[in-house]
Recover the amino acids of this structure.
C-alpha cells in the first residue's frame, strides 16, 4: 500500500469509517474505463486530456466535495506514479472529512457507475466531468453566491 492509500486508511480508522481497499488491478481497470469514456485519447484517465471538463482554481476546492457529492459510495484513487491502490468510500459526504485528516495530495473520485470524474490536481485545480455532478456544482454555486465570483477556470 502506498503513502496516500495509507493516509486514507489512517483517517478512516480515526473517524470510524469503513472503507474498502481496492487492488491495483481494480483501480487500473477503473482508470482505463474512465479514460475510454472521458478523455480525448481514449486511454487511461489523465486530467489534462479530459473532454469538456469544467475546472475551478481554488486551493480549498476539495472542501466543496461534501456539498457536491451525494450519500452514495465513491471511489478515490491517485496518479499511478503516486499510489497503485484506491478505496471505496461508503458515502461521498465522507470524502472531505477523510481528506481533512490527510496531507494534501492530488486525487481522483468517481462513483461505482463511473458516471463522473473529479480530479483535484497538484496545481489546486478541481476538474469535473459528468452531467449529474455538474448539476450539483451549479446548485452549489447558486445556493452560495459568495463563492461563485471568486472562482476562475484553471485555463485562465
Amino acid at each position: 500500500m502506498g503513502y496516500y492509500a495509507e493516509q486514507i486508511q489512517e483517517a478512516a480508522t480515526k473517524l470510524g469509517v469503513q472503507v474498502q481497499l481496492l487492488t491495483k488491478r481494480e483501480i487500473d481497470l477503473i482508470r482505463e474505463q474512465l479514460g475510454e469514456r472521458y478523455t480525448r485519447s481514449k486511454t487511461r484517465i489523465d486530467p489534462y486530456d479530459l473532454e469538456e471538463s469544467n475546472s475551478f482554481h481554488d486551493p480549498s476546492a476539495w472542501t466543496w466535495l461534501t456539498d457536491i457529492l451525494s450519500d452514495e459510495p465513491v471511489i478515490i484513487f491517485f496518479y499511478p506514479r503516486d499510489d497503485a491502490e484506491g478505496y471505496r468510500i461508503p458515502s461521498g459526504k465522507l470524502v472531505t472529512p477523510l481528506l481533512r485528516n490527510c496531507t494534501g495530495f492530488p486525487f481522483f473520485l468517481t462513483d461505482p457507475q463511473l458516471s463522473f470524474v473529479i480530479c483535484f490536481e497538484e496545481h489546486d485545480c478541481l476538474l469535473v466531468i459528468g452531467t449529474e455532478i455538474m448539476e450539483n456544482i451549479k446548485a452549489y454555486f447558486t445556493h452560495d453566491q459568495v463563492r461563485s465570483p471568486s472562482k476562475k477556470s484553471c485555463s485562465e
Q: What stands out?
A: Helices lie at 3-15, 24-38, 65-68, 95-100, 131-143. The chain has five helices and seven strands. The chain has one domain: 3-150. The beta strands are 20-22, 54-57, 74-77, 86-89, 107-110, 117-120, 125-129.
